C-alpha cells in the first residue's frame, strides 16, 4: 500500500511540475523497487553479520515504512517547497524512534 501510494503521489507531483510521462512514472516505480530491494538486502546482511535473530519478513515489513515517510514528504513539498527540510528531520527522528523500539523488543535490551 505504501509503495502504491508513493508511485501515485510521485506521478501527481510530476504532473503538477509538467514533467509527467508514462516513462517517468515507470522510472519512479523502478527506482522505488530497487531502493527497497537494496534496503532489505543491506539490513539482512547487517543483521546476519551482527548475529541478530530478526526474521527476514520483519525486515521487509519494517522497510515499508520508508515509503510512508517519502509519501508524506511529497505531499508536504507540494504544499510548501521549503518544508522538505523540516519534514525530513521529523521523519528521521520518527524512524529512529521506531527502530529503537523494534530493537528493544527483538533483542530484549531494555535498560
UniProtKB/TrEMBL annotation:
The keyword Oxidoreductase does not apply. It is a multi-pass membrane protein. One of its GO terms (cellular component) is COPII-coated ER to Golgi transport vesicle. It is found in: Endoplasmic reticulum membrane; Golgi apparatus membrane. InterPro entries: Yif1_fam. Residues 1-18 form the signal peptide. It comes from the Eukaryota. One of its GO terms (biological process) is endoplasmic reticulum to Golgi vesicle-mediated transport. Keywords: Endoplasmic reticulum, Golgi apparatus, Membrane, Protein transport, Signal, Transmembrane, Transmembrane helix, Transport. Pfam families: YIF1. Its main location: endoplasmic reticulum. The chain crosses the membrane at residues 59-76, 83-103. Belongs to the YIF1 family. PANTHER family: PROTEIN YIF1B-LIKE, YIP1 INTERACTING FACTOR HOMOLOG YIF1 PROTEIN. This is Uncharacterized protein.
